[in-house]
Design a protein that fits this description.
Layout (H helix, E strand, L loop, with lengths): L1 E2 L3 E2 L5 H6 L8 E16 L5 E17 L3 E5 L6 H8 L7 E6 L2 E2 L5 H10 E4 L13 H11 L9 H11 L16 H13 L5 E5 L7 H18 L2 E5 L3 H7 L2 E6 L2 E7 H6 L4 H8 L6 H5 L31 H5 L17 E2 L12
Helix pairs in contact: 4-5, 4-6, 5-6, 6-7
Amino acid sequence: MTVNGATPLGATTPEEAAFAQDVPRGEPILEVRDLLKHFPLTKGVLFKKQVGAVKAVDGVSFDLMQGETLGIVGESGCGKSTLAKVLMNLEPATAGSVKYKGEEISHLSGAALKAVRRNIQMVFQDPYTSLNPRMTVGDIIGEPYEIHPEVAPKGDRRKAVQDLLDVVGLNPEYINRYPHQFSGGQRQRIGIARGLALKPEIIICDEPVSALDVSVQAQVINLLEQLQGEFNLSYMFIAHDLSIVRHISDRVGVMYLGRMVEIGTDLEIYEHATHPYTQALLSAVPVPDPAAREHRDRIVLTGDVPSPANPPSGCRFRTRCWKAQEKCAKEDPALTVRDWLDGRARHDSACHFAGERENLI
């Protein structure tokens, strides 16, 4: 609803008015194009001179659709967490575009950035360090209401916090307890409740279950799926565990050395992977059946991951790839659909010689 044809009720800036518009399910709510985050390497003490840069995120592009879960996987150090921080504007982007509901948000500040952060929240990796030990659970979950008082009037905040605790499966009477009085799984539920406080549309989950026991992981994953249906949330889910990503994700993006090397639906990636790096990751997934394990085609990569401060020319995976040819050193492969692929293999892959490989998992 608008006032005098200008902005929706409750919106005080043009940005807030744009962000208040609904996005139809299946349409892009977050559009990322050629996103870069380079950390400068300097030399000298008094007179510092930049001598290079760590290319943590180096040209990442993808869309996050309304109501979907996009999983992001890759080795440690490939840039997954840096990507999440840049999307949240916790780290400023070096270059590139991040659009939320069609509006550029990568260079926002002040009230405009505040409006974005109300709609895009984050669940952090470590439930032990992401909660302030000096604050009660009520203060931690209610803190967003101090920054955005329009969401919950002051007299209703205690009730709102207790409702959130109930939503994530915790006793509302725990509101006056401190973080050290909870288990790891309970702390992560508190982090999820804090992320839900402002009723966001997007939640970026940065390895939310990696520090938890397997049984607790299942509880948190089931909770996230339940909340997605109740609150119509869109997730970007970062994790190392490929089985968890497959369980929760609608689409999966694979990152290597700051780049997205393959992206597609969960079935396309897990059953019809076309990039050699994705195939190597899938071949490393443990198989419980000894008979199936004997006939499995295990891919063992040689060499170490190159330094993001000095990545290889052309394809960044070529130094560890069994398909590498002279073309791979000269041309950087685009993330696109290759003409010779068909069926489920026909999805975006950054490889000059993209093709399926059987018996991976």
